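If you are new to this repository, start here. Below is one unmodified record pulled from the training split, so you can see the exact layout before writing a loader.
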Amino acid sequence: QLQLVESGGGLVQPGGSLRLSCAASGFTLDYYTIGWFRQAPGKEREGIACVSRRGGGSNYLDSVKGRFTISRDNAKNTVYLQMNNPKPEDLAVYYCAATSKLVGLCVLHPRAYDYWGQGTQVTVSS
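And here is the target side for that same chain:
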């Protein structure tokens, strides 16, 4: 059974750092395009970072460029989201998602992804 599990969320101070993990089971992540998404209270889910399959490129939402980094560890079948210098507006539930249908550069639209984790809460506050 294909499953994604996020972890690493919690409370972080503005200007600090946090690393989220997305661990896969039942499939090999390297063959899938992976995206990180978030949903803040009262807002729609938005894509913030993605990495293409098999060593392809990555893509970021403008508001997180230079602060967040998506990366893969194929040996651990895990994708990470390193969050540096978080801001209060980054408060949200963060989800990872996967799809095998995309070729070329990944996209940040939630509807392009088929498999989703349960989410992990990130709170940015001093």
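Two things worth knowing about this chain: The first strand starts at residue 3 and ends at 7. The chain has a mean pLDDT of 95.
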